[in-house]
Design a protein that fits this description.
Elements lengths: L4 E7 L4 E7 L3 E6 L10 E4 L1 E6 L1 E2 L2 E2 L7 H13 L2 E9 L3 H17 L1 H6 L3 E4 L23 H10 L3 E6 L6 H10 L3 E4 L6 H9 L4 E2 L16 H7 L4 E5 L7 H11 L4 E4 L11 E5 L3 E5 L5 E3 L12 H10 L5 H6 L3 H6 L18 E4 L9 E6 L2 E3 L5
Helix pairs in contact: 1-2, 2-4, 4-5, 6-7
The chain binds zinc ion.
């Protein structure tokens, strides 16, 4: 039996000071009056990152991925306040996808922290656009047609497959998407050259997510109609947005958040193993040889194509507060309750401050130049040391 602990902070939704008692879950929440509120940090659920390819030199898409790779990412992400994350495997031969899935499953069996931190696995590809541009840096050699039977084989390797990103541009896309939904897997639209009509058909067949909306699409589109407007307009679709300040210009990000609302837009890092690395030229299994600029822009050498991101989810959170102009409560929704609701496999109450919810908690500086900075992290009731995001 873990001894109950307490933590005090300002509830950003209600603006009142609360004292939270917790073990592995939140046991009690008590209002403690208004007086000290001004100086208190904001208390919030731990952050949830729906798209992580790697972090801190660990790469889920490398051939040598092991359960240890997964455990190290869980541990490093918790230190920056990301207490739930979705491992994301990109386009690759089927045996490589299966191998990565097996490593992640094994990690969740061996390591209790990874078991609680990882709700499911996201397979981004291989059923995506084969065209330069929308394909991004996914390897064209391994892009293939939508195939629900392959998804079924992945599920045999690991029941953790929760999301698959597809381009619904082919004639059989609606039928294949419906079959994947019947397997209990969420379908996300992404890396696509599909037409607005094909996007609508995919949604009608059960696609409910958009993967990094505004990226993984042609650089030039008709002003209207185009697939971005269709995905923004349809309220059945929740959209992941890379908020690192490089993938989406501030105006675009702001308008997308307004169109989707914070209930249907959630922030993702799309981080690669290079997140947290020194600027310069690097090799990555996600995008071959890439350049990391001093501003944190990660691009495929010799092109403008972005090769994933080097920023973290807390970086994106601060970006939407400082540059997009969201308040802390709005920004928090997009890294806590909204991803908890739309990502499959999340634990009950995750992303919310309520009794019975997992005791994944962060303290955040609420005001001043350091607003949005995470200063303390609790994961499953245990204080994580060295928190500084
Ligand atoms: Zn992508």
């Amino acid at each position: 039996m873990t001894q109950a602990k307490t933590i005090t902070g300002k509830d950003p939704q209600r603006g009142v000071a609360v004292e939270i008692t917790y073990g592995r879950t939140i046991l009690a929440i008590r209002d403690v009056g208004d007086d000290p509120v001004r100086n208190l940090p904001v208390i919030a659920p731990g952050f949830i990152d729906g798209q992580v390819n790697g972090y801190g030199g660990c790469d889920l898409n490398a051939e040598d991925v092991t359960p240890g790779t997964v455990g190290r990412i869980t541990s490093m992400l918790s230190r920056i306040g990301v207490t739930t994350w979705v491992p994301t495997i990109v386009t690759a031969p089927e045996d490589a996808i299966t191998h990565a899935l097996e490593q992640i499953s094994q990690a969740c069996k061996d390591d209790p922290s990874s078991r609680t931190a990882i709700p499911c696995v996201h397979i981004e590809g291989p059923f995506i656009s084969d065209q330069d541009g929308p394909r991004g840096v996914h390897n064209a050699d391994y892009v293939r047609g939508l195939d629900a039977e392959e998804v079924q084989r992945w599920l045999r390797a690991s029941g953790m497959v929760g999301i698959v990103t597809v381009s619904p541009h082919a004639l059989d896309a609606p039928e294949q998407i419906a079959k994947i939904r019947e397997l209990g897997v969420e379908v996300a639209i992404g890396h696509t050259h599909a037409s607005p009509a094909q996007i609508r058909a995919a949604i009608a067949s059960g696609a409910r997510l958009a993967t990094h909306l505004g990226n993984g699409i042609a650089t030039t589109l008709p002003r209207h109609p185009n697939p971005l407007w269709t995905q923004l307009a349809d309220d059945r679709l929740s959209a992941g947005l890379i908020a690192d300040g490089h993938h989406l210009p501030t105006d675009t990000l702001k308008v997308m958040i307004r169109a989707k609302t914070t209930e249907r837009a959630y922030l993702v890092s799309d981080s690669t193993a290079l997140a947290g690395s020194e600027p310069g030229r690097h090799r990555t299994s996600v995008g071959g040889v890439v350049d990391l600029s001093p501003e944190g822009r990660l691009s495929y050498v010799g092109t403008d194509l972005l090769a994933g991101a080097a920023a973290t989810l807390p970086d994106g959170f601060r970006n939407v507060i400082r540059n997009v102009g969201l308040n802390i409560a709005e920004a928090l929704t997009m890294v806590t309750s909204t991803p908890a609701r739309v990502i499959p496999g999340t634990r009950p109450g995750l992303g919310q401050l309520r009794v019975g919810a997992p005791a994944d908690l962060v303290l955040i500086t609420g005001e001043g130049p350091e607003a949005g900075t995470i200063t303390k992290v609790v994961q499953s009731g245990r204080e994580v040391s060295g928190a500084a995001a």
